[in-house]
Amino acid sequence: MLHRQNQNRRVAGLASVLVLLFICCSCGKKTPTLNLLVWEGYADASFVHTFEELNHCKVSASYMGSSDELVAKLRGGSAGNYDVISPSSDVATTIASGGLAAPLDVSKLPTYGQLSPQLTSLPLVRIKGQIYGAPFMWGPDPMIYDTTVFRQAPDSWNIFWDPKYRGKISVWDDLSTVYMAAQILGFDKPDPSQLYNLSDEQLEAVKKKLLELKPNIRKMWSTGGELTNLFQNHEVVAAMGWPLMTNQLRKINFPVGETIPKENTTGWIDHLMVTAGSENKDLAVKFVEYMIQPATQKKVTDVTGYTPSNPGAANFMTPDQVKGLHLDDVENYQKHIYFWQNVPRRTKYNEIWNEVKATQ
After folding, report:
1. DSSP state letter for 104
2. Residue 261 and residue 272 share a domain
3. pTM given for the model
4. What is the CATH number of the domain that holds 97?
5. For residue 8, is it within any domain?
6. Which of 63, 95, 135, 201 could share a disulfide with 309, CB 3.0–4.6 Å?
7. What is the number of domains present in the chain?
């Protein structure tokens, strides 16, 4: 009997050791997590899940409401909390030159060579011969409108100031609204890049113009979902937005239209960057490569309505999709879009914008 008890104790002890070994091994095989700080729509499960399965990892996404929010978080000590970011062309240079992103070894991005030369040739993310980002998606800041109110597409941003739309307009809580007002005032003539380097006098004129707009503004939106809800609830009839919101509204059969007015509009080129503080740089580079592949780009477009940086995505689309994204007429379409550039006096722009918001 005593021998049997001792044998049982040994068996129980061995079982405990095996359980501990299993727990230790499981801890050692912890699933790596890739943390993103990106624009809304850039981490949808329809394409991210495949990457997670292929690389046995988890992707966790946080979303930003503006370019300034992204820069503030990176400069505020949060850079190490994120591995991949998607800055737009107005702050991509600042992030690259400020040591907030890691240079990319394009030899580890075999798809990089497929990206549109019109985008990769721009100097936005090239610093001292090194490349800090891969062009990902691009598009305009279009006018979005309720087609039950506007039977024809409005042909000018000036309708935002029409008294009949008092309390029925929305604009983005972002400097792009400053750019739009500068366009109305003709400060983009003859050089559209002047929008991003306005003088004090021009900024004061923009401020005056935006203050005149305030009675018509129902609410300034911060996220795509917020603007979509404003339209759904019939609180607004027109807004400056993103193709993402147009896409969202069409999916729920809301009567929405989208147009670029005669003054043209501003737009953005979003890049994928790996942060300098990332502890998962190899996995982050794999993610960038996956996201710029044509099949993935098509899936991102399905969610966002944005135009892919990889023209090869068209091979996965219907002719109507290709036409709708202007992939059959890129050069002409881009003539109507003044892509965001680095804003040397960004602090002054923000000062003007904050004064507009603070005025009752």
Report:
1. B
2. no
3. 0.86
4. 3.40.190.10
5. no
6. 135
7. 2
